[in-house]
Amino acid sequence: MSNHPDQPPPIIRLLMEDERYQFEAYQFVRDALTYAQEELQLGGIHDPSSSEGQDAASSHITGQQLCEAIRLYALDQYGLLAQQVLKSWGVTCTGDFGEIVYNLIKIEAMKKSDSDRREDFDNVYDFDEALRRDFRISMPEK
User: Fold this and answer.
1) The domain containing residue 60 runs over which residues?
2) For the chain, how many structural domains are there in total?
3) Is residue 13 part of a domain?
């Protein structure tokens, strides 16, 4: 998608065309993908120094894996407020992550493999349960 000088950037056009999600939701999903690849080591080793084409194939993760990474990242970033923060951005179920990912694919900000489907994100987990379970308040060691 080329960007003409008199047109807004693709992400701005996307936000104007699809008003369901706030900009922060898109940024959060992209950050969670990086978290999945670098912190959780999903999809193989993520090497930022490799060329994009080679890295994309070796670091691919599934929709279900990305949903789980988003859950862990949300809990890490926002703790027990994670569900409320996501809701404030328009995100209330894992299917919303799929909509966000596929919107990002549409503007060429993310890539997909031939086996990926939008439905891979549907009903991966229940938000009420998933964003509260496994949450632990950790105290700093003395």
Assistant:
1) 21-130
2) 1
3) no
Domain assignment present for residue 12? The answer is no
Structure-token match 């209330």, residue found: 92
CB-based contacts of 94: which residues, under 8 Å, 6+ apart?
67, 121, 122, 123, 124, 125, 127
User: Mind listing the pLDDT tens digit of every residue in the chain (142 residues)?
Assistant: 555 667 889 999 999 999 999 999 999 999 999 999 888 888 754 444 444 444 444 467 899 999 999 999 999 999 989 999 999 999 999 999 999 999 999 999 998 888 899 999 999 999 888 987 656 666 677 6
pTM: 0.80
3-39: burial string, b at 16+ Cβ within 10 Å, e else: eeeeeeebeeebbeeeeebeeebbebbeebbebbbee
